[in-house]
Backbone:
């Protein structure tokens, strides 16, 4: 297939290109900064997002479109950051859909980045794809972000990639939470009983490829390992794998005072998310067990 990827320069995008190229797919990468693409990729076509003619022609040339764009959530949620988080997702998806319409060519499939943030804080409730959306800043953003594609009127297959915390050696959440552990300050946040959904980067990109190539997959899919654990368990296993103590406990009140609402909606919430649709469709996770996953990832 010929695949056009927006946000290809990011953590998931770069790993996805590494998954798709050896499988024989042709890739067109798009960026707000084409020079960045030239540094990262040598075997992809490259398109400058600011050059409309280039983008329209790339759309006309592709069978699949994948959108992995979005400003980072890992900064304090000031008013302007929240606006950026929103525009780079909802506004950007709308922009791509408008460009598709203008190009006169609809791809066979559109895979849209999304997040398990959709579900909000749900304590012990099991969350397959048909669970209702949660409440709060992130659930509202994710619901509206998904809605842009769902209600677009595009006639192609539409897949929503509800991604959990993606584990990789040098990018994403793992280096961030591994740092205090390395410095002997490892431990859990809040009461630690919150379910902590994760997926290894290799399974994340294998699942995106699986969904792209499998015509029967439609709508939201949860990208989360079946080996989900509670946050306390996650930090305990991480500390053991890193041969560090797991004695520290950051109370919820301190975290909230230091980092505000972002913490409440990212670190203290409980989300028992299940990969129901992927498993029913026959997707086999390679990384199902946390201890083994962390050993392989951090070695
Ligand atoms: N990593 C995770 O754990 C995780 C978990 C859940 C959901 N997700 C979602 O999955 C998607 C990809 O995640 P990732 O970890 O690969 O993200 P990432 O490394 O931060 O990359 C995202 C890409 O989005 C583009 N981008 C950044 N700011 C933008 C803006 N203001 N407007 C338009 N584009 C912008 C950038 O591409 P250019 O600079 O090249 O244009 C960047 O390479 C994101 O939407 C993220 O919310 C990720």
Residues:
């Amino acid at each position: 297939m010929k695949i056009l990827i927006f946000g290809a320069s990011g953590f998931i995008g770069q790993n996805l290109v590494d998954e798709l190229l050896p499988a024989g797919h042709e890739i067109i990468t798009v960026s707000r900064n084409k020079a960045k693409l030239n540094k990262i990729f040598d075997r992809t076509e490259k398109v400058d997002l600011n050059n409309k003619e280039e983008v329209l022609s790339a759309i006309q040339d592709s069978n699949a479109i994948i959108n992995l764009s979005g400003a980072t959530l890992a900064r304090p949620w000031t008013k302007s950051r929240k606006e950026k988080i929103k525009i780079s997702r909802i506004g950007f998806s709308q922009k791509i859909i408008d460009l598709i319409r203008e190009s006169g060519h609809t791809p066979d499939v559109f895979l849209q980045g999304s997040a398990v943030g959709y579900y909000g804080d749900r304590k012990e409730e099991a969350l397959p794809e048909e669970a209702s959306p949660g409440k709060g800043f992130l659930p509202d953003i994710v619901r509206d972000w998904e809605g842009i594609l769902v209600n677009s009127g595009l006639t192609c297959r539409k897949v929503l990639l509800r991604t959990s915390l993606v584990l990789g050696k040098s990018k994403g959440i793992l280096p961030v939470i591994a740092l205090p552990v390395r410095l002997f300050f490892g431990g859990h946040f809040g009461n630690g009983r919150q379910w902590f959904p994760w997926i290894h980067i290799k399974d994340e990109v294998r699942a995106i490829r699986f969904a792209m190539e499998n015509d029967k997959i439609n709508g939201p899919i949860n990208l989360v390992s079946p080996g989900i654990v509670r946050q306390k368990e996650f930090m305990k296993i991480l500390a053991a794998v890193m041969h560090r103590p797991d004695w520290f406990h950051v109370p919820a009140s301190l975290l909230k005072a230091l980092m505000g609402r972002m913490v409440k909606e990212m670190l203290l919430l409980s989300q028992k998310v299940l990969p129901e649709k992927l498993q029913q469709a026959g997707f086999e996770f390679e990384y199902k067990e946390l201890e083994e996953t962390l050993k392989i990832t951090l070695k």
